[in-house]
């Protein structure tokens, strides 16, 4: 999930110009494309919920390391 690959998609010249040399905008547009593709694909409701939570956590600045640490703490409390 952390691996990113570049995929050419057809855009208007204006849209291409708006994204050129703007990595943050390009990343956001890529996220929107992924969201659309996920919505079109049949999926397990639990997986869809977990992916949505993961996207919100990343948007809030949480890293996988943060999540792993929280899960480890939660597991330790239950032992």
Task: Kindly list the characteristics that best describe this protein.
0% strand; 79 residues; mainly alpha; 70% helix; elongated
Would you give an account of this structure?
The protein is built from four helices and no strands. Helices cover 70% and strands 0% of the residues. The protein is elongated, with a radius of gyration of 17 Å. With 79 residues, the chain is mainly α.
Number of helices: 4
Give the overall form: elongated
Distance between the termini: 30 Å
Radius of gyration from CA coordinates? 17 Å
Largest sheet: none
Low-confidence stretches: none
Helix content: 55-70%
Mean pLDDT comes to: 84
β-strand percent reads: under 5%
Task: Count all strands and give the number.
Answer: 0
Q: Give the ordered list of helices and strands.
A: HHHH
* SSE-based structural type: mainly alpha
């Amino acid at each position: 999930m952390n691996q990113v690959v570049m995929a050419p998609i057809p855009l208007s010249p204006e849209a291409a110009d708006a994204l050129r040399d703007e990595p943050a905008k390009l990343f956001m547009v890529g996220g929107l494309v992924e969201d659309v593709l996920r919505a079109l694909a049949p999926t397990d409701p639990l997986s869809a919920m977990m992916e949505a939570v993961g996207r919100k956590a990343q948007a809030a600045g949480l890293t996988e390391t943060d999540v792993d640490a929280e899960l480890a703490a939660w597991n330790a409390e239950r032992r």
